Amino acid sequence: MKKLKNIFIISVYLFIASAFLPKQKETILDFSLKNIDGKMISLANYKDAKGFIIVFTCNHCPFAKLYPPRLNALNKKYDSLGVPLIAISSTDTMMYEEDTYPNMVIKATNEQFSFPYLFDEMQSVAKNFKAQKTPHAFVIWKENNQWVVKYNGAIDDNGMEPDKVTESYVANAVDALLANKKITTTETKSIGCQIAFRK
Amino acid sequence: MNKIVCFTLVVLFFINNTKAQSIQIVKFDGLKNITFNKSDTTYVINFFASWCKPCLEEIPTFIQFIDSTKNTKTKVLFVSVDLKNELNKSLIAVVKKYSLPPIYLLDEPNGNNWISDIDKNWSGAIPATLIVKKGRKKHFITSTITYQNLINLTQ
């Protein structure tokens, strides 16, 4: 009986203590998805990458449509610094015909994507990232051989008018990580098209 | 919380304006300055967009709910988060197609300024529906909503 009581007291202490622990690091697992050129891509393919900019996007979403030129610019700048950009489409293609793999190939070709555009057919990668909408950007960084989420949210603070962007959230996060500084904004919210998960 | 209340108030102001056009542009920021809403009306605020298929699929449910709550103090407000440049195209088409009551277009280019004010766990994905009773947020739903949900949540 006393033993039980002790266990109870310890559990209560642990429960209270857990409230004061720093938020646990969100890590993500590597994946293997088909790119628009038919080849499979994994994070492990990039031996020298310090981190990645992962953008959940799709063909059909008006908000996502505003960003390809900006994604090209981000990739151009950060790929050479060891932080490549990878776009992933996880939308339910049963719901949106525009998001099927052949249509992804067409879009990436027409808009000259300089980055991989991967097809997350099973939606498992979106689930792993807890990606909720398009566009939804993540900056992940390699720490002790794990991929740690450092930023998640909007790409910048003005989707519709790129000239009026005052804060480039993703770029700022990557710059901070490269300079070994603290990221000022680690999470932002923005309107987007929901990634509806099939049941 | 006050922001939501003010937001509701401004929207209420617009809905009372009989000359209001079918689409009224509103700012979230400007809404903060308006005083507390003590009305006993329950507001069902549906965030949608003309390009959001699941949102459009829910509209008939909201219309049915509007019809069945006509004589109660319950009001449904459709708030579009469409891009402003869509105003004259797809959004008008949706308003006509579904015979929507006057709707609101939220003119806020940076979602990060207002989304957390609605609900701190909301990522900004739509559809999303907020239920406000007597100036207090009661429910926030991002999953598919049914007629029965609406009835239960507004009671």
Describe it:
The complex is a heterodimer of chains A (199) and B (155). Chain A has 199 residues and is α+β, with helices and mostly antiparallel strands. Chain A has helices at 2-18, 62-65, 68-79, 101-110, 124-129, 169-178, and strands at residues 27-28, 33-34, 40-41, 51-56, 85-89, 117-119, 133-134, 136-143, 146-153, 192-194. Chain A has one domain (24-194): Glutaredoxin, CATH 3.40.30. In chain A, the strands form three sheets. Chain A has a six-stranded mixed sheet. Chain A has a two-stranded antiparallel sheet with strand order 2-3. The longest helix of chain A has 17 residues, at 2-18. Chain B is an alpha/beta fold and 155 residues long. Chain B has one domain (2-154): Glutaredoxin, CATH 3.40.30.10. The chains are: A alpha+beta (199), B alpha/beta (155). At the A-B interface, strand 10 of A face strand 5 of B.
Produce a short descriptive summary.
With 199 residues, chain A is of the alpha+beta class. Chain A is built from six helices and ten strands; from the N terminus they run αββββααβαβαβββαβ.
